[in-house]
Amino acid sequence: MISAQGPEFAATVYNLGVINAPLGVSLTLLHGYNLGVINAPLELMGDWLNTTNYNRTKEYLSQSSKTRIISWIVSIYYIGDKIGGAFAGFFSERFGHKAVLLINNVFAFLAAILFGFCKMAGSWEMIVAGRLFIGINNGLNARLVPKYLSTIAPPNLRGAIGYVYQPAVAISILFLQIMGSESLYAWHVMLALTTVPAVFQLCVLLICPEQNPENLLLPISEPSHQQGQAGLLPESCAVAVQLNERARRDERDAEGG
């Protein structure tokens, strides 16, 4: 039985998924960006911490106190990353990959707000909180993005798309290292720019399917219907190719059973 939306709708949704999967891969730069962006401006950030503490207490920070605060700013990100990763499976099973990735952007927006206004508020605690939030965001992304992209991609692209995540992270870290610390006097703005890929991710996810539309077209137990519906589409259409593959696979399974 043909889906109520028809094969044309399925083909459109499927192609949207294929087109947006590479765009989604580019969003892995968010992970690498937040890994690398904190390294370059640490010296400038240390000077700001000194000034901030003097404005509060009329005393400058000792070297050990400054090192301790900077250590918290750097390391709290990894704690957030582990928290996000630990709960990724729990939330994805209950709400689906796409829904969790959409909601996950809340952490990125909260972090961007805290980063953007930390200098105005004179609060290094806001940076620590922001790094925790963005760590949770990246932890969820690291576990869910490769799996989600592999889910919505056609079979011939699943391996490549699932593999691209780690190289994209490495490229973004390299890019930030090349920029160097001299161009990061507005380091709080650089930290807050994490909201840019988050907004892009939000827009892209809204037009991506929840899962591979192959699973939405026809009952698994009716390969003859799959072949019939595939015949309504051009042979070169990705949906038709995948329906034919699925029908043949189901027939082999039935014969083997």
Percent in strands: under 5%
Low-confidence stretches: 1-6, 216-237
Secondary-structure element series: HHHHHHHHHHHHH
Helix segment tally: 13
Structural class: mainly alpha
Mean pLDDT: 75
Q: Shape from CA axes?
A: elongated
Distance between the termini: 24 Å
Assign the CATH topology of the largest domain: Growth Hormone, Chain: A
Overall structural domain count:
2
CATH top level assignment of the largest domain: Mainly Alpha
CATH architecture of the largest domain: Up-down Bundle
CATH superfamily of the largest domain: MFS general substrate transporter like domains
Rg, please? 23 Å
Protein name: Solute carrier family 2, facilitated glucose transporter member 5
GO cellular component, one term: membrane
Keywords: Membrane, Sugar transport, Transmembrane, Transmembrane helix, Transport
Organism: Hyalella azteca (Amphipod)
Characterization of this structure:
- The chain is mainly α and 257 residues long.
- It folds into 2 domains: 22-211, Growth Hormone, Chain: A (Up-down Bundle); 218-256, no CATH class.
- The chain has helices at 6-26, 29-36, 42-57, 63-95, 97-121, 124-152, 155-163, 165-179, 187-192, 195-205, 214-217, 223-230, 238-256.
- Helix 1 (6-26) packs across helix 6 (124-152) and helix 4 packs antiparallel against helix 5 (97-121).
- It is elongated.
- The two termini are 24 Å apart.
What are the key terms here?
single chain, mainly alpha, Growth Hormone, Chain: A, 13 helices, MFS_dom, GLUT, membrane, transmembrane, MFS_sugar_transport-like
